[in-house]
Structure formats: C-alpha cells, structure tokens
Design goal:
Length: 547
C-alpha cells in the first residue's frame, strides 16, 4: 500500500468522500472501515478481510528504527514506542509511522509526512488504545496524557523513562472521546497528569478531559508561556524546566471552586480599587465612597432631582479625578448636558437663557474653559443623540465609550429609555435583559457605572410627589434592578409641602449596598434656587422628615 492520492465515494457504504485512494490503486474507507484491494482496477470491488489486511500491511514494517532527528527523539525511545521512520536521499526524515493497537496487535498506523505535515491512516483508528498504551502496565502511581505522538515520546524521554506517557489520537478536538474509550485504563493510575498543548484549544480540551476523572485524580500541567508543547521543550533542551512544570501540576478543581493554598498569593495582591468619595458626607459614612467595577442605581419619583444628582456626580468626578467620564443622557440633547455641567462650574443656572444673557462677554466661554482645560482635554464624553435608539446600538456606543475612549465612569440617564429601545414586549423581561447586559459590561471592563431608574406608582393616598418612603419593591418593572445593582440609592422629597424648605429638601435613602451592607437614610440635599446646586444640609431627626 502506498500513500494517499485523493478521496472518493465509497462503493460499499455510499459515503461521499470517505474512501481514501492510495497510489497502488487500493483504497480504505474511513466510514465503513473496509479495505478495497482493487479500487482503481476493477468494477467489482475486492473487499479484503480486515484481519488479512491488518496482517498484510498494518504491522508498521515500512521504514526503520532510527533517531528522529527532526524532533530530537532518540532511537531508544522510538523503538520503545514502535515508531519507525523513512528518510530522503539527503538523510533527512521523510515520514514517521505511529502504530496503534487493540490488545497486542497493531490494527492501524498513523503516518506523518514530515515535509507537508499531513497525516494519513493505514488500517483503522476505530476502537484503538491510546498511543503508547501498549508499553504501559495497567495501574501505577503516575501516567501522563499528552496531545500528540511526538509529545508523548518527548515527555517520556525528559522524564528519564520513569513513568508511562500516552497520547490521544487526533488532537485536542478528539480528547474527550479518546479518553472515554480508555477511561478504565487511565483510572487504574493514582494520578493522571494532563499536559496538552499550550494554546487555547489545548487548554480548553485539558479542562474537559480532567472532568472525566474521579475527584482529585487529574492534574493539569501549565507549561512556560514560551513553549507550545513537550516536544518544543525537548528540542530546546529544556527538560529540567519541563519536569519543574510537571511536578508543579495542580489538581483539577471545577471552575469556581478554589483551594485556599491557591488563593493565598492572589488574596494578598492589592488589586482592590480605591474608593472615590461622594461629594456628600452622609453617603460616604454608609458607603465609603464609590468604586470602579460597581453598578449604582439612582431612583426616585418624577421631578425629584435624579438627573440633578447625577449631574453633580459627573462634575465631581471630572474635578476630583483624572479619569475620563462618559454620559449617556437619553432624554436631553448634548448641549443641555453641557449647560448643566457649566451651571455647576459657575454656581449659576446657565441652562436658563435669561441668566446666560446677563453674563458679561466672554464669561460663559471662561466657564467652558475651566470645565475643559488642557489637563482635562478629551476627558468628558457625551452621547449626542436624543431619543430612543436600537438597544444594540446603545450598547455598542457604551462599549466604545468605555473601551475605545477609556471612560472609567459612565452615567446612563435613564433605564426606561433603554427599555423603550427594545420596542413592544414584556417590560419586566426587557429590564431583566438590559440589567444583565449592563452587569456583564461592568464585570468585563471594570467601569464604574451609575444608572438612573424610575419608580412605579404607589397605591394609596400619597405618592412619591408627597415624599413617600421608597423601598426596593417600588422599583419599576423588575426585581432584577435591585438584584443586579451593587448599590441602590433612592431620592425622596415632598414636592407638595407648603414649607419651602421641606419642598426643596431631598432625602437620600440607601436601599441596598453590597459593599458595606448598610442601608437607611443617608443625608439630605437642599436645592439652592439661586445657584441651581444641591447642597448637603443636616436635619435634626435623621430618620424622618416631618411631612
């Protein structure tokens, strides 16, 4: 039997291209596992008995035992594994032949063309043992499982031939299938050390294979980053480094289950983000500031100052940090957003045209320059489109703000407009979907996110405009808002009070704090009509404001 020339339909099983036609006119079908001796020479196919074919051509007689110089594998190791090679006229290696066994008989040979790096099979790989399994006695302290034949021989050589090394048959993709077929053999060893290729496919397959074994049996080798596989290390004479990695193999544990020993080094790394203080002492007392990687939801009734509060926070972050700040205000155009920030900078309600008209020439431009000085250049990123958009487009803009423009903080005003962007449908399901996506974005990017959300109407004689105390159950549409947010802060104010101080004083109530666990009343903000600012004020009875 020669080398494979092309693939054709099989006349025995009607497969479209499973028949591998060899240069001697014979063929082998990888679908029905039949050998056709005269595929190209007769209309009546002569099907050889598999045993006859095996004895005739599967015994790996082609080539000889030599040093596999292309892989730096010794003749002793090649002979141990039964691997023969052929050479070109110049003495270089042309092919490797890897024998595969069932019991003590070779039933298939995998041939590697060292020039083209193609593989062909003679015989059948169906039901065979792992490569190298024939030289391993059942049971023992260690067995090492690798991803390729040359890796098996390389690891065996670097281990001083002390412990058996076997390989799966057809790369990472077939790892689970190959191991399942030979699980009883592998389970007979006290430790199964898995050393697959140092790439994404290899590492993913290693995790899947490790799950097949009894708890505590499988161990995963992490090779140094600069090496692809065991043969790569052998060729570079790094046997000692390989053994160090082998001995350091960690017992496989399912994702999310951590061993205290493995956690210690990471635990003591100072990777926790510093808190940025809020501009109001009452919140800091309970929350210890705001942090990147958190999703903070601000809520309250209509007209209670949610946008005013977040505007204060936007200005505060611009002035007290060097971070980029992104604003996605869906109910106002970008000029209104900027006027709001300029108003805080100036302590004047510059969003009112009559007040702007009273400014001396150049004063408005001066406030703009203070907000956007050279040190703060390009730090303020504002969404410029008013109204409802496709929700996927909105998330695309958010990702661009965070990743492309390096915004460490983003403010979204408000959730209801994002829900509207999803069109007709179940509001509850839409909110759950958006909150989940926002949470994932926070986890992925570690951005500090502030979200404005509305409340549902309160049943009874008094509503939110009368200063009704807010609870998590008042959040509009879904429990997902409270569940997914790291922190929920509600604003309460009796807009209808005859007392001008009371009607202008907003209570800040923490409904949830994952970081500190503290909830309850956290201070009061007084709206100053002259400046348009929210100023923290102190009320004697911090638990209740008389209505």
């Amino acid at each position: 039997m020669g080398f494979v020339k092309y693939h054709q339909p099989c006349p025995l099983c009607d497969s479209s291209d499973a028949a591998s036609v060899n240069d001697d006119g014979s063929a082998y079908c990888f679908s029905c596992y039949k050998h056709i001796a005269n595929y190209e020479n007769s209309e009546a196919p002569v099907v050889e008995d598999f045993v006859t074919h095996k004895n005739n051509s599967m015994n790996n007689n082609e080539g000889s035992f030599i040093d596999l110089t292309d892989r730096k594998i010794s003749i002793a190791t090649a002979r141990k594994y039964g691997v023969k090679a052929t050479t070109k006229p110049d003495g270089s290696i042309e092919t490797h032949s890897y024998p595969y066994y069932i019991a003590n008989e070779i039933v298939g040979t995998k041939i590697r063309n060292c020039t083209t790096k193609d593989f062909t099979w003679r015989g059948s790989p169906k039901g065979t043992m792992l490569f190298g399994q024939q030289i391993a006695q059942t049971g023992g302290k260690y067995i090492t499982l690798v991803e390729g034949e040359c890796d098996a021989m390389s690891a065996y050589e670097m281990m001083g031939s002390k412990w058996p090394v076997v390989s799966i048959k057809n790369g990472a993709g077939g790892g689970v299938k190959d191991v399942k077929e030979n699980l009883e053999f592998l389970e007979s060893f006290a430790n199964v050390v898995i050393c697959f290729d140092n790439d994404a496919a290899g590492q993913e397959s290693a995790q899947k294979v490790a799950r097949l074994f009894k708890p505590g049996k499988s161990k995963l080798v992490q090779l140094p980053n600069e090496f692809k596989d065991p043969n790569d290390m052998l060729k570079q004479n790094r046997g000692a480094a390989f053994m160090a990695s082998w001995w350091a193999a960690k017992t496989y544990t399912p994702a999310g289950v951590l061993d205290i020993t493995d956690m210690k080094e990471e635990f003591f790394q100072n990777d926790e983000k510093e808190s940025i203080p809020y501009p109001w002492a009452g919140l800091n007392e309970k929350l210890f500031g705001i942090r990147q990687g958190e999703l903070v939801t601000w809520t309250g009734g209509t007209g209670l100052g949610k946008s005013s509060v977040t505007r204060e926070l936007e200005h505060w972050l611009l002035k007290t940090t060097n971070d980029n700040v992104g604003i996605l205000a869906l109910e106002e155009n970008w000029k209104r957003t900027v006027y709001g920030l300029l108003s805080i900078e100036a302590n004047k309600r510059l969003y009112i045209k009559q007040i702007r008209d009273e400014l001396p020439d150049g004063e408005l431009s001066g406030y703009f320059d203070k907000l956007h000085d050279k040190e703060n250049a390009h730090r303020l990123i504002v969404h410029s489109h008013l109204g409802v958009q496709d929700v996927d487009e909105l998330f695309s803009k958010l990702r661009y703000m965070i990743i492309g423009l390096d915004c460490k903080w983003v403010v979204i005003d408000h959730l209801g407009m994002m829900t509207s962007a999803m069109g007709e449908g179940d509001e509850r399901r839409a909110i759950d979907n958006i909150m989940t996506r926002l949470r994932s974005l926070v986890e992925e990017t570690n951005v500090g996110m502030m979200l404005v959300s509305h409340l549902r109407r309160v049943e009874g004689n008094k509503g939110h405009e009368n200063g009704v105390e807010v609870s998590l159950s008042h959040l509009r549409g879904s429990n997902g808002i409270g569940q997914i947010s790291d922190c929920v802060i509600a604003l309460e104010r009796n807009q209808q009070s005859d007392d001008p101080i009371e009607s202008s004083t907003t209570r800040m109530r923490i409904l949830k704090s994952r970081y500190t666990g503290e909830v309850g009343l956290a201070g009061h903000l007084l709206y100053d009509k002259d400046t348009g600012r929210l100023v923290e004020t102190f009320v004697e009875d911090k638990e209740e404001v008389e209505l």
